[in-house]
Specification:
The protein has about 130 residues and is mainly β. The chain has one helix and six strands, in the order ββββββα. The strands form three sheets. It has a two-stranded antiparallel sheet. Strands 3-5 form a two-stranded antiparallel ribbon. Strands 4-6 form a two-stranded antiparallel sheet. Keywords: Disulfide bond, Glycoprotein, Signal. InterPro entries: Spondin/Thrombospondin_T1, TSP1_rpt, TSP1_rpt_sf, TSP1_spondin_dom. Pfam families: TSP1_spondin, TSP_1.
């Protein structure tokens, strides 16, 4: 019997690489090729798909803040004043992410009316003259 020769694999060319699996950051892309010869004509151990890592620009990271603190006490003991509350930045924005909104808020407050001592009006009237 003559010696048998194996028939070489007939393969299509590789396809173009697919798009990266992500729109930013690290992902994967693939390409394929097809077996053109009949499988029963011989063993074909060639790979039909390849994958590789791909890297796109970093993903935007938006600013992240803590919750608001409690409102402070009014800054005056009587009359009109203000109180504040704050929050801290946990993550600074990066790669075009959303900027941080305000971290301090101020609000008006009014504590009881300031009391004047007896005769204060008369003294002021005399000083004004």
């Amino acid at each position: 019997m003559p010696e048998c020769h194996t028939i070489p694999c007939l393969l299509s060319p590789w396809s173009e690489w697919s798009d990266c699996s992500v729109t930013c950051g690290k992902g994967m892309r693939t390409r394929q090729r097809m077996l053109k010869s009949a499988a029963e004509l011989g063993d074909c151990n060639e790979e039909l798909e390849q994958a590789e890592k791909c890297m796109l620009p970093e993903c935007p990271i938006d600013c992240e803040l803590t919750e608001w603190s409690q409102w402070s006490e009014c800054n005056t003991s009587c009359g009109k004043g203000h109180m504040i509350r704050t929050r801290m930045i946990k993550i600074e924005p990066q790669f075009g992410g959303a900027a941080c909104p305000e971290t301090v808020q101020r609000s008006k407050c009014r504590v009881r009316k300031c009391l004047r001592g007896p005769g204060m009006e008369k003294r002021r009237w005399k000083e004004a003259r």
